[in-house]
Amino acid sequence: MAVSRDGRRDGPRSPENRFPAHRIPPVEIVATVALVGAIGAGAVVYLLTRSRSIHGSWTIAADELGLRPAAGSAFHEPRLEGMIDGLPVRIDVFRRDHSADSIAFTRYRVWYSPLKLGLRLTRESSVTRVLNRLGAPDVDTGHADFDDAFTVRANSTEAARAFLTPTRRNSLLRLMSLHRDVEVEDNGITLTVVGVERDPERIITFMRRTVATARHLAGAGNEPTLDEGLTLQRQGDLAAAAHQFQAAGRAHPEDLDAKLLEAQALLATGEHEAAAGVVAGLSSALPVDVEVLGMKDRLDTPPPAPAAPPPIELTPMLDDLFSHNRLSFDTGRRFEERYRGSPVKLSGRVKSAREYDRDLDFGDTPGAKAVVTIASIHHDLYGTNDLDAVVQLPPGSAEHLRRGDTITFSGTLANVDPMMRNLFVAEAHLIA
After folding, report:
1. What is the pTM of this model?
2. Is 113 strand, coil or helix?
3. Is the dihedral of CA 224, 230, 232, 237 positive or negative?
4. What DSSP element (H or E) covers 105?
């Protein structure tokens, strides 16, 4: 029996007193270890299930795109590699530290033979605008919508301007309007999306859109026909442009940019049956593309019943149709629902005017066709740009119009070209 320092005898310790108060009894230790183990095992099962799901989605995309998954365990980040339309591609995941967190990104890359221009295009931002003011200016291509969207660096300004043809500018602008993080270099293009992609249809769509743009940067062979179509469209010859895009699509059926331009032009000219066939093909190739889904929705929505045309105020109408990052399919739908057939009175500065005996946009009877700048509009992606009215005037009107003249005219809103941001005004007359 133990004796304490004060002389008292201590009895034998009871079982509950054999462990100091700060110790955890063995039963509780075992329970805690078991709980931690169960949580850890659950986490491993969750991560393994999630990883297998992601890899499964990427395998579906790989089969559709004809790519091969990179070898590795189920815990490795997914990666696909291979060739599409003759160009090497890779889809992978990378992580970037941000404060205390690590953020994952899915990256779509396509390579082509070096352009030897020292070319680098990135999205225009407040930082690049400051750098331009501080003496590191980018290349001015002479096209305001493109220059407001991209910062362009190159060894030679003239060489960069020559390279950035209407087709290449159009493809880059359309891709960037859907995915803001696009970067072009002398030998490839990269599209980056936040997060680890889990939807195989999104992987397929994003990859094919990136390849479509890369093909034109690499010189796919369809550029002259598309360039001519885009020039006609900018001049207000929308129906003639649609014919050019159709010719480009027939010559190169794999060219998704040509098909997108064709579908949009056919919709704008009211050829819905022909547009439906093109959109069906695009839906198969680009299952979740925003532009394609918008065109499909427009085709599936019956036209509104005719109504008395409301009085049109120019500024609210332009704001409704073209600003706030509005995409082309939405502009076309809004015009059909709210403005087609409405009378307008507009003023602006003449850009061009010509007589015609027959015009694909305005019909078989002779007349005059004028392009008139009526406003400047701001778009969240493309900055501030001119907006033109393509005007049908009586025969003989063009000989009295000169570039730079300011005119006022009245007519009927007949159509809209959402991509070029042109309004078509039929049966117009000059107002003195």
Report:
1. 0.79
2. coil
3. positive
4. strand 101-111
Task: Give the pLDDT confidence of 390-432 residue by residue, as tens digits.
Answer: 999 999 999 999 999 999 999 999 999 988 889 999 999 999 7
397, two tokens: 């009107």
Write the CATH number of the domain with boundaries 224-300: 1.25.40.10
CATH number for domain 314-431, candidates 2.40.50, 2.20.28, 3.40.1130, 3.40.1360: 2.40.50
pLDDT band at residue 144, thresholds of 50, 70 and 90?
A: confident
| Residue boundaries of the structural domains of the chain | 60-218, 224-300, 314-431
**AA letter at 378:** H
Give the closest residue to 184 by CA, choosing from 222, 137, 146. 146
pLDDT of 307 above 80: no
DSSP 3: B
What contacts 69, CB < 8 A, 6 or more positions away? 55, 58, 59, 62, 78, 79, 80
3-state helix, strand and coil shares in percent for the chain, rounded to the nearest 5: 40, 25, 30
Q: Give the residue, 421 or 16, on which the prediction is more confident.
A: 421
Residues in CB range of 431: below 8 A, 6 or more apart: 345, 408, 409, 410
Q: Residue 118: which of 148, 170, 158 has the closest Cα?
A: 158
Residue 83 bridge partners (DSSP): 88
- Residue 319: C-alpha distances to residues 169, 176, 330, 426 (Å): 24, 21, 13, 22
The secondary structure of 299-348 as a DSSP string is HHSPPPPP-PPPP--HHHHHHHHH-TT--HHHHHHHHHHHTTT-EEEEEE
Nearest to 315 by CA among 346, 349, 351: 346
Q: Cβ(276)–Cβ(263) under 8 Å? A: no
Nearest one of 51, 431, 419, 47 to 238, comparing CA atoms: 419
What's the CA gap between 412 and 390, in Å, rounded?
A: 11
Task: Encode pLDDT of 162-196 as tens digits.
Answer: 999 999 999 999 998 888 899 999 999 999 999 99
